[in-house]
Amino acid sequence: MEGRQKEWSGKALMLMVLLLVSFVGKIASLSVTVNDIECVYEYVLYEDDTVSGNFVVVDHDIFWGSDHPGLDLIVTSPGGNTVHTSKGTSGDKFEFKAPRSGMYKFCFHNPYSTPETVSFNIHVGHIPNEHNIAKDEHLDPINVKIAELREALESVTLEQKYLKARDVRHRHTNESTRRRVVMYTVGEYIALAAASALQVVYIRKLFSKSVGYNRAYLCGKSLTLKDLELSEVPPRPSALQIMSEIAGLKCLTKLSVCDFSIRYLPPEIGCVYNLEYLDLSFNKMKSFPAEISNLNALIALKVANNKLVELPSTLSSLQRLEILDLSNNKLTSLGFLELDLMPTSRI
User: Fold this and answer.
1) Which GO cellular component terms, listed alphabetically, does the Swiss-Prot or TrEMBL entry include (predicted)?
2) Where is the domain boundary, 119, 152, 179?
3) Is residue 193 part of a domain?
């Protein structure tokens, strides 16, 4: 007798488990893309049944400056009355008692033009009450307990689906945020590079205008320049050009160009007619141009520590020359230099 009771208890427990498993999974899960207004319909068999559910916007395009403000959900009963409303949210849970049996309408409204994908879960729960038990002899308290357990499991399952949808949404939000950060960083680097390039161009133009202005200013002032001294070694190609430009200083009376790596004196030097003092020491000159004889006002000529190997005979025509310094050169003789034509010179 006792063995049969255990056998019947085991069968009853197995039956309860099978019934619970058979009832689980009756949650309606949908994925809805909402462009403007999208509606889902669910039929409720019994009055006062519990209608519960949730929705989460899981896939949407996030604006650059802010997140999407969310959707509106309006639930309408068969009689046309609104039984639940959610405004401007990206996810929500709802639960209400059905005022009557019939077709219920769940409408999502998207106030923006960006399409939104919504994970929507809905469940209609029915638990027999004492009035139903009195009318139906097949119902007993065990069936009511099974229904209550079933609804509890359905609630847990519904909550799990909601949390899973929120997790998907959060992953999508994180990925979208990461993309925005990358795009913002790349855009920032491009903007900085463009700004740097523009600054370089602007500074170059500014200096170009400044140098041009200074050159024009100096050109005007240099026409009356009388004393000029250069001592810094320039790049080799520019030394001869600088000396050629100096030849345009007509009022120059004193010129000192020492340690300037000069190899040749340009012929234009003969145009500086007012030059009285010329110091070309510590350079690399090997000879003088014949035009140096045009410097009739020259009083002192210093070319010490060069590489002179010969002197032009026209140097004798500088009758006002008093000082001629030729020390530390490679001269072996004064050549055709006529000293009697230079009575005031000290060599």
Assistant:
1) endomembrane system; membrane
2) 179
3) no
